[in-house]
Amino acid sequence: MAERGSRRRRAEIVRLATTSGLASVDELSRTFGVTASTIRRDLAVLTAEGRLARTYGGAMALTAHPESPLRQRVGEAFAAKRAIARAAAALVRPGETVLLDAGSTVGALAHELRSCPGLTAVVVGVTALQELGDADGITVHCLGGTLRPVSGGFVGPLAEASLERLTFDRAFLGADGVTTDGLCEADLAQTRLKELMARRAGAVHVLAHGAKLGRRPFHAWARLEGGWTLITDASADPAYVGRLRAAGIAVVVADGAERVVPFA
């Protein structure tokens, strides 16, 4: 009976990893009401059987999964994204020019920046545009290009040409996955644009909640030259945070508990 329950649980773990792209040990432990050590044994069995690939803090499906639409991602990991957004907003100073990537976490940052005096924002996606389009005292430029409906971001030659005429105090980038190799995205148009964005900014900040660390859901990569900072949340696996720091990547962990006073 116990073995039958284990088989059912492992089959469900594979299903969850296939549909969501990443299965976290802590989340699976809560979902199935078993200990973390039991989940780790399940993942070891599934990895040995070739049904999953292990990641830091969990496992992921071996086959690529569909890119989640923006409207779905907006509601995911809401508290983590808000904590990250508040920590990122605290870095921005009045009068700066910032580049805001597409995506739900950067959209949350745009919401926090609505009251930043004298801000000039260059936006690469619809989330930041919707947040800042009617904000008083903020100048908004839209990068333009070809819209990717699934992500709400602009890509392509028009977006790339616009970047060549601009520089930024800071760029805030999103990602589908963050590893020591760089940023993982669904297609090459996104990764090429992120590399160009990073080159035009004085400081580069990547916003990604903990479930995205060590994640490789797709096969397109952006490699960021020079130093950059990852801003993540308290759910991030400490061991993987340590690996990122050892690779020379600065990491800020926002726990959401502190009172952030931006625009000082």
Automatic annotation (TrEMBL):
<feature type="domain" description="HTH deoR-type">
    <location>
        <begin position="6"/>
        <end position="61"/>
    </location>
</feature>
<keyword id="KW-0238">DNA-binding</keyword>
<protein>
    <submittedName>
        <fullName>DeoR/GlpR family DNA-binding transcription regulator</fullName>
    </submittedName>
</protein>
<keyword id="KW-0805">Transcription regulation</keyword>
<dbReference type="InterPro" id="IPR050313">
    <property type="entry name" value="Carb_Metab_HTH_regulators"/>
</dbReference>
<dbReference type="InterPro" id="IPR001034">
    <property type="entry name" value="DeoR_HTH"/>
</dbReference>
<keyword id="KW-0804">Transcription</keyword>
<dbReference type="InterPro" id="IPR014036">
    <property type="entry name" value="DeoR-like_C"/>
</dbReference>
<dbReference type="InterPro" id="IPR037171">
    <property type="entry name" value="NagB/RpiA_transferase-like"/>
</dbReference>
<dbReference type="Pfam" id="PF08220">
    <property type="entry name" value="HTH_DeoR"/>
</dbReference>
<dbReference type="InterPro" id="IPR036390">
    <property type="entry name" value="WH_DNA-bd_sf"/>
</dbReference>
<dbReference type="Pfam" id="PF00455">
    <property type="entry name" value="DeoRC"/>
</dbReference>
<dbReference type="GO" id="GO:0003677">
    <property type="term" value="F:DNA binding"/>
</dbReference>
